Amino acid sequence: MGYITLMPDNPLLWNFFFGVIVALIYVQGIILLMERMVNSGRLSSDLSRKVIHIAAGSFIWIWLFIDTSDGITYLFNIAVPLLFFFTFLYKGYRGSPDDKDVKTMSRTGDPRELLKGTLYFTIIMMIAGTIFFGSYAGMLIMAVLGWGDGIAPYIGKRYGKRKYKTVGREKSIEGSLGFFLFALIGSLIFWILLGVLGAVDPPVLADPGVELVEILIVIILCCFVAMLVEVFSPADLDNILVPASTLITLLVVDFVLFPGATFVTFRILGTVL
Prior knowledge:
The protein is built from 9 helices and 4 strands. It has helices spanning 11-39, 45-57, 79-94, 100-105, 117-130, 136-159, 173-197, 212-232, 238-257; strands at 163-166, 169-172, 267-268, 271-272. β3 (267-268) and β4 (271-272) form a beta hairpin. The longest helix has 29 residues, at 11-39. The two termini are 17 Å apart.
């Protein structure tokens, strides 16, 4: 069973409803709202992209309502990321600067931007919702990517005064600290939502075998390492390198820092490894 289901005898229909219909309404609703606010001048396109980035990264709240009992239809949770993957692929090659997705999700209005960081983001969403579904790894990957990496550029651009350069890119101490802070906030929200409040029988997020303080240490460590990786990531590759750093950090935790812990679990067609 998943966390919350009203159709225990029909996981296919239940998972389709939440994984596809509800998730699509959620994401499209955010995009339409941001588009209207940008067009009305109440919100900058730069900030709208960050709101969409964070909202998309928070799609894992859907996990609360995914039923895993049949071992396969939980994959409906990646239906919307998959849809946007092909949408960005198409519009990246065939779209125009006037397209709503190009206007709200690109920095410069160039459709080909959708083929870089934006496209990579949907790939990470699909990996989190399949291989790492219902795990601390999937949860923390989306927290650091969606919240930390989502807000850091905006904070750096808006409030960054202490500048420094890495890999040919200019960063700011304020932006980097913003990454760490929001990655931490996102991680704690997801952990409380999925690992604490949502822990019904059986919990989607398995007990990693460590104490509360140790879990907090691991979350802080993941956010700090992800922040450092974002600092040194080449342009457009941070959406890949940041979640990769979180996975590597958790593997080190499992085998070195807290041997026997299970922060990283893999799910292959319903089977947790």
